[in-house]
Amino acid sequence: MTVHFNQLTKEPYLRLPAPQSNIIITPHRSDNIDEDAKSLSNILNDPKVYPWLERTPYPYLHEHGVEWIEAHCKENKKGLSTLRKNLEQDEIINTKNAVGREFIDDCPFTCIREVLADDPDTGAPLKDRLIGDMKLARYTFYEHLNDSEQRSKAQLKNNELPAGDENIIWTLGDFLAPSHHGKGIMSLAVRTLIHDWGIPHLNVHHIKCYAFVGNEGSLRVFEKNNFERGHTLEDWVPVPESRGGGKKSIVLVTWRGV
Ligand SMILES: CC(C)(COP(=O)(O)OP(=O)(O)OC[C@H]1O[C@@H](n2cnc3c(N)ncnc32)[C@H](O)[C@@H]1OP(=O)(O)O)[C@@H](O)C(=O)NCCC(=O)NCCS
User: What is the C-alpha separation between 24 and 125, in angstroms, rounded?
Assistant: First the structure.
């Protein structure tokens, strides 16, 4: 249950447990934008990935990736600098030590990376490549219609709750490169993000997500992490014309703490 700190690159990261301990979850990197944007466009133009996602542009251009990474680097700057200071002192923060610390209002751990080489002395990752993305964020209330007043009001109320408030409802979105599907990576990544970051640092008690009807892989990942399947909303989420248009039905899933 730890946030690790790479002393060589000054980067905080989460590491999945065995048998997936070659997978880490890191913040976006401002010094790696081109390479990461290339990986993102490879993944997000793949027909095994983009039809299951609501918001990512299609076709996904290199500049979409660059904008996405730059925006995240900017958004995470303040939270990461505080976290870095804490971690430089501790090297590894145990959940135990996190008790009594201020809760943080941010999830900088978004990039799923496969480690290609570790430093033999420190065990810190030396070389890796981006293979996916995930994010814990404040919930957007999919059960209310897109662009409805009810949705805006619910979002506003949830967004106004202060960091660490256990009434905040969170959501979690994810995708992985098809070359790495079906190996148990996302099931463990979701568990790691919730237990190593969400619970100890954000005080997460309640998460609500959805998957398109038919996305059994995603629903299974949620179920393996103790999310309960809720009801189905028929013809609910509008699909952009670039992906065929129309509306997709969704299944809601909910997690209520450990
Ligand atoms: C959904 C996704 C993130 C899952 O990642 P993953 O690392 O392949 O998932 P895991 O290997 O941890 O687990 C997948 C589980 O789903 C099961 N599964 C996969 N496809 C399935 C299908 N068509 N029907 C039934 N079960 C399926 C697997 O058997 C496994 O369950 P098991 O461990 O009990 O055998 C990945 O497939 C992906 O990126 N999909 C495209 C984007 C996406 O759908 N994102 C989520 C949007 S809500």
Answer: 9
